[in-house]
Amino acid sequence: MRILITNDDGINAPGLQVLHDIATQIAGDGEVWTVAPAFEQSGVGHCISYTKPMMIAELGPRRFAAEGSPADCVLAGLHDVLDGDLPDLVLSGVNRGNNAAENTLYSGTIGGAMEAALQGVPAIALSQFLGPDNYHAENPFEAAAVHGAVVVRGLLDHADWQSGPYRTFFNVNFPPVSAAAVRGTRVVQQGFRQDTRFTVEPQHSPAGRRFLWIKGGPQHLPTAPGTDVEANLAGFVSVTPMRADLTAHDLISDLRARLEAELPG
């Protein structure tokens, strides 16, 4: 098996080495190729560098850094590094911090997996939830490192990799506990933290100029039963099938009946 890996924490991030180890276990006698951002790209979502070129550099065998987003790196990997010879799988992560609930919408890790799916390649995003039990651990990624290959193999063997116009990809979050404390795996919906919002925090530089820092909200607020954060905080690995289609399908019929009857044409 040939696997392409990327992330949004950057080419030197420890989570990328964890992902390389997971990919190596899955690839067996195959190949693992790395194309990751030269600098951290957290929070860029599915951004692509549409209006400017990006530099790409080979750092070692099958290891490249690109000055772009995770989605850029996937494009570079598929169409330049691998020259159109598509891999069997794209893995994005392992992110330092959760990409569950509303974080999913901002995540460059998710953006990399989404771009792979749009390119017709099976893709999985992997993230390590951090909390009091693992934040200061010698290896905060232990849960992902120990259980990652098992989860990826399970998805490869059992998931429905639908290949319609918006191909399915998968979002995996490992709980904020040690590997031994992981209770299992739950297939769940994307959740929503009711009282968590991104905000801004102003500061002034020594020269008096005003700057704004983007500030996240609490990460350990629970989400509804059967959703990702709720599963993670209970010690379970969460697996959420996703598509890039943003249509609210449940609202189409009612809106059509109400709106089309009122408007001409």
Helices and strands in order:
Layout: E1 2-6, H1 14-27, E2 31-37, E3 56-60, E4 63-66, H2 70-81, E5 89-96, H3 108-118, E6 123-128, H4 142-158, E7 169-174, E8 184-187, E9 199-204, E10 210-215, H5 228-233, E11 236-242, H6 249-262
Parallel strand pairs: 1-2, 1-5, 2-4, 5-6, 6-7, 8-11
Antiparallel strand pairs: 3-4, 7-11, 9-10
Helix pairs in contact: 1-4, 2-3
Describe this structure in words.
By secondary structure, the chain is of the alpha/beta class. The protein has a single domain (2-193, 221-262), classed as 3-Layer(aba) Sandwich (Stationary-phase Survival Protein Sure Homolog, Chain: A). The protein is 28% helix and 24% strand. It has 6 helices and 11 strands. The protein has helices at residues 14-27, 70-81, 108-118, 142-158, 228-233, 249-262; strands at 2-6, 31-37, 56-60, 63-66, 89-96, 123-128, 169-174, 184-187, 199-204, 210-215, 236-242. The strands form 2 sheets. It has a 9-stranded mixed beta sheet, sandwiched between helices. A hairpin with a 5-residue loop joins strand 9 (199-204) and strand 10 (210-215). Helix 2 (70-81) runs parallel beside helix 3 (108-118).
What CATH first level would be assigned?
Alpha Beta
Number of helices: 6
| Biggest beta sheet attributes | 9 strands, mixed
Poorly predicted runs of 5 or more residues: none
